[in-house]
Amino acid sequence: MQNDSLTGLLTFEDFLSQAGVEICDKSKAYMIAAADITDFHFINVNHGYDVGDDVLRDAADFIRDCLPNMICACRSHSDHFLMLISVQDTEYERVMNETQRLKERVKEMIGRRASDISPNINVGLYFVEPGEENVVAAVDKANVARRTNKGSYNIPCVVYSEHLMDIKENSAKILPIFDDSFRKESIRVYLQPKISSETKKIIGAEALSRLVDDEGNIIPPARFIAALEQTGRIIELDFYVLSYICRLIRKWINEGIEPITISFNLSRMHFFSSTVVEDIIKLAEEHNVPPQYLEIEVTESVFFEAQEMIVAKVQQLRDYGFKVSVDDFGSGYSSLSLIGVLPVDVVKLDKSFVKESLKSPRSGDLMKGLIRILNEIQLEIVCEGVETPEEEKMVNEYGCSEVQGYLYDKPIPTDEFESKYIK
Ligand code: C2E
Ligand code: CA
Ligand code: CA
Hints:
The chain is α/β, with parallel strands linked by helices. It contains 15 helices and 15 strands.
């Protein structure tokens, strides 16, 4: 048996042969866990390879010494680890809680080496079918689950199911469509208005992207965002959308029209690029678009990791004059203390608030209290997902007068948007 010289864990080949023998034992139950460290290369880049190596050795020590029921483990490559674990039961909630606890310990360990990074650990689990003999296929399934866990900050791990295979197949279909549309510049950018309930006038719009397949069918973001995030291509999409709206705003200015502010979604991945702030400013300057006409939407969950680094970049964007909003506020583990430290102008309350508030008086009180506090600290508030006049009336009574939702309009193509709202 050979060992990985850096970590002392097995090599990938030896792991496969050892695990391959183990899982043939039908009297026992096993799970394969695949794990990797998000954005590990930033540890190498920001702190040097020695620190990167220390982190990998810490992780290996943890796997060897602290993982209950571990049978064998390897570092398959870079920051990717595989473990064969014997299991007594497959009770979902227990596995989730246990994984969460273990992950917290590893994150704390990494934090001691590289305090400004605090990366996430992605974990995928596959419960080996009794008598399954194909260890390579089993490892592949754990890896499919691991990749699905990427970017989900409040899900401790993903357990493999056949459904995930569908997602993987979907990615394989989506990526060529994205490549093709990107090259041909045929990605659609739709706009959804944000309306003031008081004046019934438009106060802004959000840009949302759509892909189109060969047959001309519109593919919604729910079917492509995850695949683009997993492959890093989301960065290209977001810049595509940004340059599209910059051209649109410039066109309006040239035509003598006072532009509205248009927001776009900036995926978390951008924040790990050292040039993200310059890149955004450069695009706005190239199109000669004053920054007050652009608003950057950053999802709430982004702020849970690497807070200092992200807060600093967001601050630079605001200092330049862009508006910044926290998107989907209330959809995850939001906290009020987070709002206190975020350098943002706007809070976009997630659509779940509106729906829950109508269902239960307590949720309604919560939303009302939240809006009161946000108003007190003078943040602009937008309620998303307002679909009916009753919902609008409710959020108005709670103190929020800016709404985005199907009540006024869905996201619509730009030409339709222009004829309805601009001209
Ligand atoms: P989001 O940023 O929260 O955008 C709002 C989503 O809510 C949009 O879905 C919009 O169509 C939907 N929506 C608006 N009003 C209502 C309503 O009254 N009821 C309901 N049920 N839904 C409403 P869409 O366009 O499907 O986009 C989904 C998500 O995909 C977006 O959520 C955003 O996170 C992501 N996304 C879309 N385009 C881009 C993009 O270009 N870049 C990035 N990074 N993410 C994008
Ligand atoms: Ca958004
Ligand atoms: Ca949102």
